[in-house]
């Protein structure tokens, strides 16, 4: 009995040491991976990484992770060659195959969400137009200075924001006015729409392989749904 008691105690101690080492290793890996992601993505904000599954060490030795969750703040995407900011991006990477030096990997599939504030969406417009909440889901209010018949005036329109297929593939955020005040006046509608209607591609700056798949909007801003296969983690 004494021998068995000693064996049990030793087993408990070794198990505790293993769990402690495993938790230290996963914490170290999460921090290193977060630093790598922040560097590669050029974040203006922060990156947080959570690696799921236990034990971590056996996953690391096999170079395969069950799931890695990524939370980014201040992501710089590219809209028509101009940088714009995503307030936050949350993504879950599944079945991640790590590269040889553990600095990144590729997920078999990934899904997530991103938020773009109206302030940041306004920065993607060409001529200083402002975009705010339109009072209903998928509605935005666009305010612009319009030049017509040699005069300048400010117009606000309620527009619908949608996600559409872009030329050459990929998705585009499209904003189109539902109606234009004074549109019965010849030339006024085209003058207003020239300043308030726009398309923006936001693929650039996202983790490679992660694509826009759906969109909605509310008081907080424009919410993007993301998904993809063979998605790069940490820019590898």
Q: Can you offer a commentary on this structure?
A:
The longest helix is centred in the first third of the chain and has 40 residues, at 2-41. This protein has a 6-stranded antiparallel beta sheet. A 5-stranded antiparallel beta sheet has the order 5-6-7-8-9. The model is unreliable at 3-15 (pLDDT under 50). The radius of gyration is 24 Å and the shape is elongated. It contains 4 helices and 11 strands. With 236 residues, it is α+β, with helices and mostly antiparallel strands.
Query: Sheet with the most strands?
Result: 6 strands, antiparallel
Number of helices: 4
The low-pLDDT segments are 3-15
Number of strands: 11
CA-to-CA gap between the ends?
A: 55 Å
Secondary-structure content class: alpha+beta
